[in-house]
Amino acid sequence: MLKLQLTALLCLLILFTTTFASPIGMPTGSTGGTYYPMGLDIARLSAEHGVRIQVKNSLGSLDNIRRMASTENAGLALVQSDVIEFLNSKPSRVNSSVLKNLRLVFPLYNEEVHLLAKRDINSVADLANKRVAVGKIGSGTFVTSSNILNKLGINVIKLPDLSPGDAYQGLLLGKLDAVFLWVASRFLTLMACWK
């Protein structure tokens, strides 16, 4: 199924790139995460069909949208769909301007929210006043974990600037109480920006 989706994506990219001689920039995520290698796979498959994509590491979904709205060569990006919903829920002239130029190219797959926690944490409510890794600022992880906690009215000690590896290590060493992570019911989508 994914190969069929990627083939359809390539058809769209070929149509999209017929007027561009240089590679299309595509912010993805951190080099140690899932999205960057996925971007490399998309670029490799696209290159087989004459479409050149320059994969770029990034902080994640929110950063990717910001970069697509800038003057940077960032015509495509991997973006979690709930980040688009988050921007829609925060009306502003800047958000409206950014969102009107974005287009969904292709949904790639669903992702699940996971919460790794110490043994004494049995529910999300038990996170109150605990040390929680919520993802790097600029990432979809940060937006989604913050949305979950805000909607549930749970106040935590947010630790937003840890890489996933540092967060897992902090949990194992007892420096953190919980870590939010995403594993392959949000959609990860490929977005395009027409500037």
Folded structure, characterized:
The protein has 195 residues and is of the alpha/beta class. It has 2 domains: 2-110 and 187-193, 3-Layer(aba) Sandwich (D-Maltodextrin-Binding Protein, domain 2); 112-183, D-Maltodextrin-Binding Protein, domain 2 (3-Layer(aba) Sandwich), CATH 3.40.190. Helix content is 39%, strand content 25%. It is built from 7 helices and 8 strands; from the N terminus they run H-E-H-E-H-E-H-H-E-E-H-E-H-E-E. It has helices spanning 2-17, 35-47, 61-69, 81-88, 93-100, 140-152, 164-172; strands at residues 24-27, 53-56, 76-80, 102-117, 131-133, 157-159, 178-183, 186-193. Strands 3-8-4-7-5-6 form a 6-stranded mixed sheet, with helices on both faces. A two-stranded parallel ribbon has the order 1-2. Strand 5, helix 6 and strand 6 form a beta-alpha-beta unit. The longest helix has 16 residues, at 2-17. The protein is globular.
SSE pattern, N- to C-terminal:
HEHEHEHHEEHEHEE
Content-based structural category: alpha/beta
CATH-level-4 superfamily name of the largest domain:
Periplasmic binding protein-like II
Under CATH at level 1, the class of the largest domain stands as Alpha Beta
